Amino acid sequence: MSYDKELAAAKKAASLAARLCQKVQKALLQSDVQSKNDRSPVTVADYGSQALVSYVLQQEFPSEFSLVAEEDSKDLRKDAAQELVERMTKLVNDSLASDGSYSVTLSTEDILKFIDSGKSEGGPEGRHWVLDPIDGTKGFLRGGQYAIALALLDRGKVVLGVLACPNLPLTSIRDQQSPNDEVGCLFFAEIGGGTYMQPLDGSSAVKVQVTAVENPEEASFFESYEALHSKHDLSSSIAEKLGIKAPPVRIDSQAKYGALSRGDGAIYMRLPREGYREKIWDHAAGCIVVTEAGGVVTDAAGNPLDFSRGKYLDLDTGIIVTNQKLMPLLFKAVRESLEEKASSL
Ligand SMILES: Nc1ncnc2c1ncn2[C@@H]1O[C@H](COP(=O)(O)O)[C@@H](OP(=O)(O)O)[C@H]1O
Ligand SMILES: [Mg+2]
Ligand SMILES: [Mg+2]
Ligand SMILES: [Mg+2]
Question: What are the residues facing 67 on neighbouring strands?
Answer without folding.
Answer: 129
